[in-house]
Amino acid sequence: MKRRFLQFSLRGLLGLAAIVCLALGGWRLLDAYGTTIEIESPRVGIPFRIKGRYFSLFEPDECLLCVGHGWPDGNGCSTEGGPTKRSWLFFYSVEGDFDPVDEPCQLTIFMNHLNRSGRVRWETVKESIVDVK
Predict the structure, then answer these.
(1) What does pLDDT average to over the chain?
(2) SS3 letters for the chain?
(3) In whole angstroms, what is the distance from residue 70 CA to residue 76 CA?
(4) What gap in Å lies between CA 65 and CA 76, rounded to an integer?
(5) Which pTM value belongs to this model?
(6) What are the two backbone dihedrals, phi and then psi, of residue 69, each rounded to the nearest 5 degrees?
(7) Are 34 and 55 in contact (CB under 8 A)?
(8) Are 69 and 109 in contact (CB under 8 A)?
(9) Burial of residue 107, with CB atoms counted within 10 A of its CB: 0-12 exposed, 13-18 middle, 19 or more buried
(10) For residue range 54-111, what is the model confidence (pLDDT) as tens digits?
């Protein structure tokens, strides 16, 4: 039997649907868990470290990232970072050491990325609120 040009078998359509679903699921997992930010030892009187991991498909070999912290009301801010090389596939890692906090409080930790498309400006990639006890 002769097939027309755009005629597919049911098995081929099922395979295509499975590939599309796996690709969308992988994209969703990378979006949710690819870009992370965490703080090590958030205790009063102890210096702490903020680590961030950034995922992006379309970045060059090196991009500008910074991690930092501030208070939830917006007063005060401290950042560390700079040029970051791609570490593995499309992941970039950045970390910063910060001075200890004097009293129990909540800190807003964040990771920023320098966006150079159009106009140059810092974009907040990930943000989280942490209790320091």
Answers:
(1) 86
(2) CCCCCCCCCHHHHHHHHHHHHHHHHHHHHHHHHCCEEEEECCCCCCCEEEEEEEECCCCCCEEEEEEEEECCCCCCEEEEEEEEEEEECCEEEEEEEECCCCCCEEEEEEEEEEECCCCCEEEEEEEEEEEEC
(3) 6
(4) 19
(5) 0.76
(6) -145, 160
(7) yes
(8) yes
(9) buried
(10) 988 878 888 889 999 988 777 778 888 888 898 878 899 999 999 888 889 899 999 9
Instruction: List Cα–Cα distances, 95 to 11, 13, 40, 75, in angstroms.
Output: 48, 46, 11, 22
Residues in the chain: 133
**CA–CA separation, 40 vs 97, rounded Å?**
10
How far is 123 from 129, CA to CA, in rounded Å? 18
Tokens at residue 114, please?
Answer: 């320098």
